[in-house]
Amino acid sequence: MLGAEILLRSLAAGGMDTCLGNPGTSEMHFIAALDRVPGMRCVLTLFEGVATGAADGYARMADRPASTLMHLGPGLANGLCNLHNARRARVPVVNIVGEHAEHHRRHDAPLHSDIEAIARPLSDWVRTAHSVQLLAQDCADAIAAACAPPGRIATLILPADTAWTDGADVAPIPVARQTPARVPHARIEAVAQLLRSRRGAGLMIGGSGLSQRGIEAAHVIAAAAGCRVFAPMSNARMSRGWGCHPVSRVPFAVDEAIRFLDGLESVVLAGATPPVAFFAYPEKPSLLTPPGCEMQTLATPEENVQEALENLAAALEGRPVAPKQIKLAPAPASGPLTVDALAAIVARALREDTIVIDESLSLGLTLYPAMAGAAPHEWLQMAGGATGEGLPLAVGAALAAPRRKVLCLQADGSGLYTCQALWTMAREGLDVTTVILSNRAYATLYGELAKVGAKNPGRGALDMIQLDRPAIGWPEIARGFGVPGGRADDAAGFAQALSRALSAPGPNLVEAVIA
Amino acid sequence: MLGAEILLRSLAAGGMDTCLGNPGTSEMHFIAALDRVPGMRCVLTLFEGVATGAADGYARMADRPASTLMHLGPGLANGLCNLHNARRARVPVVNIVGEHAEHHRRHDAPLHSDIEAIARPLSDWVRTAHSVQLLAQDCADAIAAACAPPGRIATLILPADTAWTDGADVAPIPVARQTPARVPHARIEAVAQLLRSRRGAGLMIGGSGLSQRGIEAAHVIAAAAGCRVFAPMSNARMSRGWGCHPVSRVPFAVDEAIRFLDGLESVVLAGATPPVAFFAYPEKPSLLTPPGCEMQTLATPEENVQEALENLAAALEGRPVAPKQIKLAPAPASGPLTVDALAAIVARALREDTIVIDESLSLGLTLYPAMAGAAPHEWLQMAGGATGEGLPLAVGAALAAPRRKVLCLQADGSGLYTCQALWTMAREGLDVTTVILSNRAYATLYGELAKVGAKNPGRGALDMIQLDRPAIGWPEIARGFGVPGGRADDAAGFAQALSRALSAPGPNLVEAVIA
Fold first, then answer.
1. Per-residue pLDDT tens for A138-178?
2. Cα separations (Å) of B270 from B146, B183, B229, B232, B324?
3. Predicted TM-score (pTM) of this structure
4. Residue B130 near chain A (CB below 8 Å)
5. Closest A-chain CA to B253
6. In chain B, what residues touch A121 (CB-CB under 8 Å)?
7. Per the domain annotation, does B364 fall within a domain?
8. Above 0.95 for ipTM, yes or no?
9. Chain A to chain B, count of Cβ pairs less than 8 Å apart?
């Protein structure tokens, strides 16, 4: 059995069944082996950032890693940006990166590079599989490293000669999957003690704390202890919609975030890290909590956050609290397509159990609260701040949850980084409706430019921010990638287009030109 | 004067006038300063790989670096793949990468990463500008590092607090540009001696040896010494067309390359490195020259290759040789659009002084020789083997040479990695005609799959190679990015579409569906 086949069988033995690939010559043995090893779904992407972003989305919904397959150092380089995002989302990903054969590397062929050095800054685990005899163990170690709770980035570099060498006696090694550590009773008691003794506390929940059960437990705690519940600005996966308590997030803008957190004397962290500003600005703090605010950790992201919240709720002898009823805003039947109109229309059109991908950025301030009262759904955000993950996340989520609808709320400027994801949606017939939130600018940057002191930006600065010359034709791009696409620029047109798109199976796209 | 303005003035003082940007918040001071500092043309790209690939194309035609502007570690990561290519093309590039302010970094905000570590594997020079007082010197050092002959990748990381701090007394520092070292007379004599004493030698010319004068001198040498002239497989810039000697390149396929180099007892390297296989294959050698073939260096890529060739020609007392007349194949007036038909049509349609970008990959075997007899032109190839640089190279070449037509011969699969480059062509009104060579597959990989032993690939393997399900609609994608696009699938239609495209100013695209 060749190394490539050993690797595929080892991935399967480790519980993996999905590979997101963009291969080249050095990966051809892996590709050839696909026809000999059943059970691995290998999905072609046109750009490596689609593969890594989709691996992120897949892991969030499947609760296990997908693998990527990338071509040498430059292929991996193209995937790094969304590996950064996946790492910040704390999900497991196993990267397979092809490498030249050992004897070829010293010749410095055109595609040669130091792949380990390229991988290391954005991977938690890196290894080159130098020998076919060790390959099954290398693969098991990679999967185990990726699955260390809550999830890590493991990069296994596969030299071509390891892939093409026969290693007949090498058997796949099963991987024992770690479960997240239980939070010790003493820590639960200490936090209960703190909450009993103090008013004005905040409970910041992230990670697995944002499941429906985690959010429920947090609200039991809040009611029992009189504290506030909130979540980080960006979250990998969150339960939302009627039947679920709405959870506010720390705002992006520093001044708003400081106001949001004002008055807190202590913050209990449950699967979250202390709230810090996204960027630094002159004369503004990095840490967003009030000076002197005490941080107490209930559960780290590596621990079982949901269980810790439930145990804390029990320790406080809290009682179930019915979620607040959120009334949906009326959806306008006509008029301009403002952000408010768009949010109301989307909230009313959403079907139960939809997976919502949110890379709405500047428009998310309106969209997020507006959808709290929609049908029950899950909300996935790009977690590392590197824009260009929305469409790939939608690909991965749809692959992991083929029976659920995916609605991708994608800002236009950000969507362009990885627009090639649309083709994989078409290729695989994924049930994804993409709404492009088209304001024809990197709109976040208007505000950011003002914050750094450029109050009346001139042509030179504006040219780096505006995308209206020429305007991007998203329906044309979508059709070019095989996805049916349309455009709407008023409320009635958008409502109709969205309703049609959500009713149709398979991928489609609506460009919503915001008034 | 704020740091951002000092940096812009320092770039200008170093002879730089073009910046290819995709900025974010941490770069807003740089952006705001654009309106205060005249002379810097800042061009927006929708993806960082377009910026770095365009910087490569710019440097090749302008003979000086452009700068890029990228947003933190993940933005730089997106640009790395084409930095790899630029590095292999041995051109100067100055990257400016924004970074969080010093006091913000320890808080591990979502976009934090180790930017120096991300930059290092594909940069020749990396520095973080920690202080506004040293910024002008840092910038001058970056430019000097990039301009070390023949050209290097310099990455200057600009923390936001360096950009926003006032450094009133800091003046830009002019950069003394190094010229390539002259090859010493003794080495010229030694090579002349070798060539006089031996038949069966090869003269392999690369870098600045592929200018018209360099190629002429090489052919004078060849005639005087009875040796063969050839070039590496991939070259940054080469003079071609009638009036210029045609130069064969070392073939991509190992067996063909070995046949091509068969019989050589010695190879003189002029601006080139020894020919090695692109990839390793089982049972095949990495070094392509015959066993025992002696390598002798006339000039390294860092030295003045053209001058060395001219001096060697003089030392051999060679005489001018008229270039071989190459007859163009007749362009078929009708029939299927085969590769031969396409090559003949393009060769006849080419106008004098065109810059041809060649990322034709598997189809290049036919295109390259067919165009030897076309009107005089220059030929630029992606040099590092990482596909997805053709369209960005076209952007950069067009920016550097606004009065020349650029013809981009772009394979379809490769073009998809950085298709966002089309928008920058539209935005800047660049005179680029793109011909998409559409075979709806990563066609190189068919052969590569066979070479690794998969003779009858099954569905699983083919699905990783074929791009026909669904077929990519390049004209639709082009129109979505603001570039007029059409499709041709027979010889007559292609001839007409190409002629129309080359006559029109500004960007356009023809998808040539190959029979």
1. 999 999 999 999 999 999 999 999 999 999 778 899 898 88
2. 22, 10, 10, 11, 22
3. 0.98
4. no
5. A25
6. 73, 113-114, 117-118
7. yes
8. yes
9. 315
